[in-house]
């Protein structure tokens, strides 16, 4: 199978089977959309890529609705706040795993996932078994909250802990397109393995149909770190 372009427009198919999401509007308008990346409790707009005017208005409307729904708070320790998107992305790429919170029928659930961060699409990819509690919950409610943590341990004699972390929200989807599935697995392996190309050649099948690959489209990010930690 020849895949000429793996950075495809986001598929309409979602775990929620919704036809009212921004993704479906982008597909129907044949426009190019990107997610908006927010940083800090102030919700300052960091990045907004090209998007037709009507969809851009819709994106800002969704962001405003999300801000109201999530009840954003100002960060108290401004000296620890991460204000640049590159550093947020570095943490997502350096973290060994992310922890994802989800909820169904008022019952919370947490799962830690190996992942790959695609900074071009501002999304996380993960691999999954074909069935399980995680997938059942996401079918009912694909809105998630996640955390990536770089733990540098306790600082002896200073009564403090050294860390860098990113919190993010978004929606989870099952990837249907074989080319994007392959791109997702390659993204994960390149982030996790010291010799990725050899592993990619050996591990990724030519036939991607049995693979269950998920994507989390990030719509909000905030970061915090100790002053002594560089990211």
Structural account:
With 231 residues, this protein is of the alpha+beta class. The protein has a single domain (22-225), classed as Electron Transport, Fmn-binding Protein, Chain A (Pnp Oxidase, Chain A), CATH 2.30.110. The chain is built from 6 helices and 10 strands, in the order αββαβαββββαββααβ. A hairpin with a 4-residue loop joins strand 8 (143-155) and strand 9 (160-174). Helix 5 (178-192) runs antiparallel to helix 6. The relative contact order is 0.21. Mean pLDDT is 75; it is low at 4-69.
Strand tally is: 10
- Roughly how many Å apart are the termini? 38 Å
- Number of individual domains: 1
In CATH, the architecture is Roll
The shape is globular
Which regions contain 5 or more consecutive residues with pLDDT less than 50? 4-69
Biggest sheet architecture: 8 strands, antiparallel
CATH superfamily descriptor: Electron Transport, Fmn-binding Protein, Chain A
Mean pLDDT: 75
Helix segment count?
A: 6
Helix/strand-derived class? alpha+beta
| Order of helical and strand elements | HEEHEHEEEEHEEHHE
Beta-strand residue percentage? 25-35%
Radius of gyration: 18 Å
As a percent range, the share of helical residues equals: 25-40%
For this structure, what is the CATH class? Answer: Mainly Beta
CATH topology: Pnp Oxidase, Chain A
Give a quick set of tags describing it.
about 230 residues; alpha+beta; Pnp Oxidase, Chain A; eight-stranded antiparallel β-sheet; two-stranded antiparallel ribbon; 6 helices; 10 strands; about 30% helix
């Amino acid at each position: 199978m020849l895949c000429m372009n793996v950075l495809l427009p986001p598929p309409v198919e979602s775990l929620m089977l919704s036809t009212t999401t921004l993704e479906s509007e982008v597909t129907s308008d044949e426009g190019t959309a990107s997610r908006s990346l927010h940083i800090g409790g102030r919700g300052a707009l960091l990045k907004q890529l090209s998007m037709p005017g009507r969809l851009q208005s819709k994106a800002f409307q969704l962001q405003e609705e999300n801000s109201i729904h999530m009840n954003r708070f100002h960060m108290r320790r401004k000296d620890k706040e991460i204000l640049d998107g590159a550093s947020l992305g570095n943490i997502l790429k350096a973290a060994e795993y992310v922890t994802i919170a989800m909820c169904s029928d008022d019952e919370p659930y947490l799962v830690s996932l190996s992942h790959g961060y695609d900074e071009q699409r501002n999304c996380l990819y993960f691999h999954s078994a074909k069935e399980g509690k995680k997938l059942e919950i996401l079918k009912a409610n694909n809105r998630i909250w996640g955390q990536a943590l770089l733990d540098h341990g306790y600082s002896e004699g200073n009564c403090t802990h050294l860390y860098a972390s990113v919190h993010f929200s978004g929606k989870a989807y099952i990837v249907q397109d074989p080319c994007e599935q392959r791109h997702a697995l390659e993204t994960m392996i390149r982030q996790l393995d010291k010799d990725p190309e050899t592993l990619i050649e050996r591990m990724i099948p030519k036939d991607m149909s049995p693979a269950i690959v998920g994507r989390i489209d990030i719509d909000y990010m905030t970061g915090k770190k100790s002053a002594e930690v560089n990211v």
